[in-house]
Specification:
Helix content is 30%, strand content 27%. It is α/β, with parallel strands linked by helices and 336 residues long. The strands form four sheets. Strands 1, 2, 10, 11, 12, 13 and 17 form a seven-stranded mixed sheet that branches. β4 and β5 form a beta hairpin. α1 packs parallel to α7, α1 runs parallel beside α12 and α4 packs across α5. The two termini are 42 Å apart. 40% of the residues are buried. One of its GO terms (molecular function) is oxidoreductase activity.
């Protein structure tokens, strides 16, 4: 059966729907199409935007305001990881504790540690935090059982694993606090529901904008003369061509958006060569030390590919980091 080709025109086309791509979509002027292959690295991140040495306060203010009405609010503050390490930056309100909470170790995930008030409970052993979060969000009996487990802990404030759901975390937290008579926060674990919570809130906000269209299940594989071409759909049978004035490449970082051929590292969609002098064997030294892991392809690719403007944003431009993704997405349309 023949499937009709999808022909689309817009002002801006963004390849990639992580934090950088969706931030750009919310900020750019004109009609914007976001090509989304999947949730990507943002969805499995900690959800914390750790401050760079050089902070961008206007971008931070925009982000905090944008997230305020999504059910996934953010603030400047501190959070604690499941390794009992403090992280400072833009954190989800549900992480931003300010007192001295009892830290809840679920099924022995956090061992007793000097200087920390760690309390252990057993609950749904063998299931991941993501699985527990889904159950708590969809099954009232599971939430009730979890509340009963926590009620045995005498503390005015609790720091629990990231299990309070994704789309309904705010409401679940409010209910839990009311039942326990205690403040409830989450600590960070990655991969985590925090990253999924962030990306889904941004997607919902982007999809509510009249000038933004997200084309899901879309793999872009060619850029030719002002057009992005690829296939879309659950079986990738429908071909699409998107014609635009401006191209934004937000395909991810070195581990997701770059390929290696012998000693050459290149960005597969554009064919842009990053390096000719690396080892083909990705040993530990390469992964931790080589500059390509932090560099990306730069903000301005060497070619415009037939577009009026072509820019890279997020990890593919500059290496990993949610704060950098926010900043590059926020400024993606500068001077256009």
């Amino acid at each position: 059966m023949l499937v009709k080709k999808l022909e689309l025109d817009c002002d801006n086309v963004i390849i990639g729907s992580g934090l950088a791509g969706l931030t750009a979509a919310l900020r750019l002027k004109g009609n914007t199409i976001v090509l989304s292959r999947g949730f990507g690295a943002t969805a499995i991140s900690s959800g914390v935007l750790s401050f760079n040495a050089r902070r961008d306060l206007p971008a931070e203010e925009w982000f905090l305001g944008s997230m305020k009405d999504t059910g996934c609010g953010y603030s400047c503050g501190n959070a604690l990881t499941d390794m009992l390490v403090h992280r400072e930056g833009l954190v989800q309100d549900i992480m931003a504790f300010s007192d001295d909470p009892a830290i809840i170790s679920l099924n022995g995930q956090i061992p007793p540690s000097p200087g920390f008030n760690v309390r252990g409970i057993r609950f749904l052993e063998g299931k991941s935090y993501q699985e527990i979060a889904k159950l708590i969000e969809t099954d009232p009996d599971v939430l009730r059982s979890f509340s009963q487990e926590l009620s045995g802990i005498d503390a005015g404030s609790l720091l629990i694993p990231p299990v309070l759901g994704i789309a309904s975390s705010h409401d679940i937290r409010e209910r839990l606090q009311k039942e326990l008579g205690a403040s409830v926060y989450e600590y960070i674990s990655s991969p985590s529901v925090h990253g999924m919570r962030l990306i889904q809130a941004l997607r919902k906000k982007a999809m509510s904008q009249k000038n933004v269209m997200i084309l899901d299940l879309s793999k872009a594989d060619r850029i030719v003369e002002g057009r992005v071409m690829g296939r879309t759909g659950t079986k990738a049978k429908r071909e699409f061509h998107v014609t635009a004035s401006n191209l934004f490449i937000a395909t991810g970082g070195p581990l997701t958006g770059l390929c290696i051929d012998g000693d050459t590292v290149y960005e597969p969609l554009t064919g842009m060569v990053i390096s000719h002098d690396i080892e083909a064997d990705l040993n530990d030294a390469f992964l931790s030390e080589h500059k390509i892991m932090r560099k990306g392809i730069g903000a301005y690719p060497g070619m415009k590919y037939g577009f009026d403007n072509a820019r890279a944003i997020g990890a593919v431009a500059q290496g990993f980091g949610l704060y950098g993704a926010l900043i590059s997405g926020y400024h993606a349309g500068d001077d256009l």
